[in-house]
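notes to self, project folder thing:

trying the whole complex as one job this time. last attempt i did each chain seperately and stitching them together was a nightmare. two parts in total, labels are on each line so i dont mix them up again. if this works i'll redo the older ones the same way
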Amino acid sequence: MANGNGASLSPPQLEIDSVSLDFGGVRALSNVCFNIYPGTIQAIIGPNGAGKTSLLNCISGLYRPQHGAIRFEGRNIIGMAPHAIARLGIARSFQNIELFRHMTVLDNLMLGRHIHMRSGVLSGGLYWGRAQREEIAHREVVEQVIDLLEIQSIRKKTVGTLPYGLQKRVELGRALAMSPRLLLLDEPMAGMNSEEKEDMARFILDVNEERGTTIVLIEHDMGVVMDISDRVAVLEFGQLIADGTPEEVRTDPKVIDAYLGREHAIRQG
Amino acid sequence: MEKFIQLTLSGIANGAIFALVALGFVLIYKSSDVINFAQGELLLIGAYLTYTTVEMIGLWWPIGVVIAVVLAAIIGVLVEQLVLRPLIGEPTISVIMVTIGLSLLLRAIIGGIWGVTPRTAPQFLPRDTITLFGANVGVDRLWAFALALTLFVLLTLFFRYSREGIAMRAVADDQQAALSMGISVKRVWAIAWAIAAVTASVGGILLMSIFGGVSGQIARVGLLVFPVVILGGLDSIPGAIVGGLIIGLLQSFAGGYLPPELGMGEVAPFIVLLLILLVRPYGLFGQRIIERV
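result (full assembly):
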């Protein structure tokens, strides 16, 4: 496998090791193998139905692959419950927005702090000393996220009433509020106009640079993918057909086949 | 006028108990989409356990009640783990059938342990009456109302401020998102059943003290949660409270003003149930679900 940039010299943060996933007789992922390195932006691309979201669901524990291993910082996480995986420091967003629609933006982000909250029912319920200090500390983290994503003006709004683009941004914010070491983003720019996409790309780069968060990104907009990713993995019919730097992937004949069809490739010689 | 005030006050007191029981039902439905037909048996469990600790063992009643409520909570959690957890992902109708089966099973177990003949219960709430707004009211009703109200306030604070309470709201709102936030949905379900068992058994204990006895009659009140939650909205906690009070008042007025041979006190809530289902199936406060086909 090609070593695209310096990051690949450090040990991988997430190893996807021969992962296969079947739904009955349908093979969604077949022997998928690649590594994700700390501090990088890793894109996963591929035609519709290639298994990108399935792979993300395997990482976050919603699906359980039949074969293979997924190691996060050296530890196999297959078979762990989704909430336990979240506690390890893996946050995600969803292709179709999954926000707590009846709560405010602030409440949504504060729920991102859930895994870091320590105080129990009693002191938490009574809002005593330690619990109060804890709340203030969590609130600070959340406010930093709000500043980063420029959503100050909507913090008290109920999420269900916000326009689509802002909801996407809040969902990113909620994942960030978890202070994850690995952030999985499932089509964070789907359905956005070019201006919104530009904003989102800038936020993703900011998060990656300022916080050093590793980012796994599923995205269909090739312009964005090639611009912001350090490495790109390409899936087709559940198989990994390429993995490398954007330049390597862009010129890979298998990838061109997958996207433009074999006939095209044959005609090109 | 005196009769009106009397009926109003006893209606509110009964309504508060209905609301308490309905609250547990709504909690289970909101967090896990399970419609629990065994709610009435949870009332019975609370009542019989208290009967055992206070009347049979002879404990001081506050201690007996606390022990009974804790045991009921444990039973609630066990029911969730052993009976409902294996049904995750099964069709709603299967889950409903299982909870109906569960209610029969619990009834049989209760009958096996305590027998089916009504028993005289310990009356720990004071039995005397006082004059309020010119009407004679049983003090036990006021106690029941005050206790129900206290529980509501505690639960509201729990949902608003505690880590577990907020996790429960998150699960009710969006299960997938809650999972990805590191919230254990299974734990939330267990808590929901524990709370439902606690509120139901407190309801059962209050009814036992008001009726002065414990028998299958208490479980009949469990059936009243259906008019209450259909009226208030299956997925609405404020709806359970308002619905409970409305049904309590309705039952009280219908029983008090209409000829007793009609038995309208028993029937009126279910007439409301039918009417609501016809005109406003999502209830007063329930979420209107629009399904696009």
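what i see at first glance: The mean pLDDT of chain A is 88.
need to look closer tmrw
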